[in-house]
Protein: 1,4-dihydroxy-2-naphthoyl-CoA synthase
Amino acid sequence: MSRMSEKDLNTMRRRMASVANHLLPAFSSSSSSAQHVVSSIGCSSSINDTYHRVHGEVPTHAPHWRLIPCDENGKDFTDIIYEKAVAEPIAKITINRPDRRNALRPNTIKELIRAFNDARDDGSVGVIILTGKGTKAFSSGGDQAVRSKHGYADFESFGRLNVLDLQVQIRRLPKPVIAMVAGYAVGGGHILHMVCDLTIAADNAIFGHSGPKVGSFDAGYGSSIMSRLVGPKKAREMWFLTRFYTASEAEKMGLVNTVVPLDKLETETIKWCREILRNSPTAIRVLKSALNAVDDGHAGLQGLGGDATLLFYGTEEGSEGKNAYNERRRPDFSKFPRLP
Ligand SMILES: CC(C)(COP(=O)(O)OP(=O)(O)OC[C@H]1O[C@@H](n2cnc3c(N)ncnc32)[C@H](O)[C@@H]1OP(=O)(O)O)[C@@H](O)C(=O)NCCC(=O)NCCSC(=O)c1cc(O)c2ccccc2c1O
Structure:
């Protein structure tokens, strides 16, 4: 038999490793993601397939955060802290009213909307983290101290429900938004984390609705998205009984993606950001629209349709139409395929 080359040997090793992997015990569906399997067995090299060899683990170091002190008009942020990671496409928006359990007043929402707008427009941002200052609360929802006859009113003479605008903004923002939840996420705080694309919860997190106890309710996303997430029966239970649920109960209900020890919350969230950021931004963008499209009706279709147009503009076929118009000639689309 002729001597094996180094390349043949490597191929053989790879195939043997692959066969050995298939002999590993199967994992339950609750830990179905490959990365989750990797972390649950604590050793990425245990799965020695091409996928894991090529993609490997993401770095675990903490980002260096740069403070964005004010909005685009130079107005200082007071109710939020807005930061961007240096040399990494991650933005972090922190609700900063810890002595009120990060309750939301109209000004808090206005600042959140401005920060989210900035993160959307900034091409160097690919993922946005939404969180609350401190470990006691993500947010306790609408600030009951400033609730008036027509909504919430802080520095104005009229009330607003501008949290609804924020919910729509997060839902339509073409970048993933991750809720990083420690402590209470109740009332409007619970709804905000549900509207985010993913939720990473600390083991001290508590979720629930208090609306009907304080004479309020969110009959918009706060009802429809919750029913989608936990199912219609559980959604009714949560709204009708206004009980609070632990992080692990929330995970079982499908309300959160994962639960981690409080001191690992940011590290784990950053890990999820980095894993997302290694993937195609356009794929992620279109998937976010697609995952929302059916539920969001015309607005959902518009988002997904807008993505299609955006991609089409980058093609030669799309440019031919524009060029022909600008050159005052008929467009020639004859060379473009009519795919089956
Ligand atoms: C969140 C709590 C369960 C935490 O309890 P804990 O014992 O840890 O802390 P305290 O209760 O002592 O709170 C410390 C301090 O913060 C003040 N505070 C906390 N939450 C709020 C709040 N939401 N508004 C105003 N102030 C708040 C509290 O008074 C204390 O102040 P001191 O001066 O006494 O130190 C518990 O705090 C709690 O149950 N909070 C209230 C939760 C709540 O009912 N939230 C409002 C629900 S309604 C809502 O959020 C809402 C959401 C929407 O999306 C809507 C959409 C459309 C229409 C309406 C909407 C809407 O109303």
Summary: The pocket of LTTK3YTO is lined by residues 100-101, 103, 136-137, 140-145, 161, 163-164, 184, 186-188, 191, 210-211, 214, 216, 218, 222 (CB under 6 Å). The first strand starts at residue 65 and ends at 67. DSSP finds 13 helices and 13 strands in the chain. The CA atoms of residues 147 and 242 lie 20 Å apart.
